[in-house]
Amino acid sequence: MFNTLSDRITGSFKSLRSKGRLSASDVEETISQIRRALLDADVALPVVRSFTAAVREKATGAVASKALNPGQQVVKIVNDELVEILGGETRELDLSRRPAVIMLAGLQGAGKTTLAGKLGRWLRTERNRKVLLVASDLQRPNAVNQLQVVGGQAGVDVWAPEPGNGVGDPVAVARSGLARAEEYGYDVVVVDTAGRLGIDEEMMRQAIDIRAAVNPNEVLFVIDAMIGQDAVATANAFQDGVGFTGVVVSKLDGDTRGGAALSVRGVTGVPIMFASTGEKLTDFEQFHADRMASRILDMGDVLTLIEQAERTWDEQQQAELAEKMSEGSFTLDDFLVQMRQLKRMGSMKKIMGMLPGMGQYREALEAFDESSVGRIEAIVQSMTPAERTDVKILNGSRRQRIARGSGTTVQEINSLVERFEQARKMMQQVSRGGGVPGMPGMGG
Ligand code: GDP
Predict the structure, then answer these.
(1) What is the pLDDT of residues 355-385, one digit of tens each?
(2) CA separation (Å) from 180 to 97, 289, 351?
(3) What digits encode the pLDDT tens for the residues 35-93?
(4) Which residue's CA is the nearest one to ligand 1's atom 6?
(5) Is the CB of 256 under 6 A from ligand 1?
(6) Is the ipTM of this complex over 0.95?
(7) Cα–ligand 1 centroid distance for 262 (angstroms)
(8) Quick check: 8 and 33 in contact, CB under 8 A?
(9) Which residues does the annotation say bind GTP (predicted)?
(10) Per the domain annotation, does 129 fall within a domain?
(11) CATH number for position 56
């Protein structure tokens, strides 16, 4: 799902991640790479334009701010904009009437009949509703039978015209299905309708007539993710014709370029509500813009961590620490404060991985024992103020005294001092935007 797009966008971040500072041209370069990736993924041009404009505006501001590393800020901005074009908050189905009516519309082969089964199953199992599927697709020879099969798999009832009963009138079937549902106390009616391979007037008129007959709570427009640049024209035609209240993107499991999914909301303003990700009835999920954006950006926990950082960060304290770091007057006390702050955000290793220029210190980070903050605290507290300020005075006998006082070993103290020195160099380098470690000015 979105593999190529994902690789290309995340690829465009690589150069940002390794930088402590960003210039306007770094941002421009990233934006231009993202723009090409989106266009190649068949995302509609107007959507790409508004996306890149929003990212540019916010990224420029982020580069000027100093709260967190600007490369990560840009990643977060891209993520937030992706969430935005994908539709923001997930909208729930309107099931307010009884029976609530959900009508499906879309081109032939988009996946409507399959969706009827998926939705039926989902409504039954996840929403505890009694569902009736109504076969108003009388165009495609096998559609009625197919709906009966998926209805059986979904464990929900199906209303269909008697076989051999002539061609039938889909509007009449929809109407009688609704009457049936009212009579037998169904909670939700899902009306499957006919599609054509292309958009044509007759099909659209039929859909409009069905809509008028059953007055649905929701009209879900089903669109095949593989449709590419045709997505926009198709979506617009359905929006102008029958109109729809929600979008379902099907076949997101394929190695699709994903443009349809990223364009439809932007072009029509109607949110994507569900994603279909395979032929099985369980290959179906509510669409969450934020999770989809995370998948596209291959971000996993990192965004959560950035958000946690924003929540838990004490700006004032950080500003003081940052100044000490760049001055080289960073002490073990500060180290402890820093570690406690990071600890509040979660795993040290994950957090460290977000920082710029960390690659060269990865081994030291990997060796970090997450549970050691308590022991470090004990060690630091067993030191005199002078020792905390200048670890260079820590000779053998001082180390033995501290080990006894803190209930640790001399080895632990040695390793803490070593790590502290490493961290101090690293922080100083990072805060200077990638300068050379070991520059003059270090030490108290
Ligand atoms: P309809 O003409 O709109 O009713 O489309 P169908 O429901 O008959 O689906 C057309 C074809 O696409 C069928 O072979 C389905 O099995 C397949 N299909 C539907 N949804 C998905 C999906 O999410 N992923 C994949 N891989 N195939 C799907």
Answers:
(1) 433 444 546 656 666 666 778 888 998 999 8
(2) 15, 36, 58
(3) 998 888 888 898 999 999 999 988 887 777 654 567 777 888 888 898 888 887 888 99
(4) 111
(5) no
(6) yes
(7) 20
(8) yes
(9) 106-113, 192-196, 250-253
(10) yes
(11) 1.20.120.140
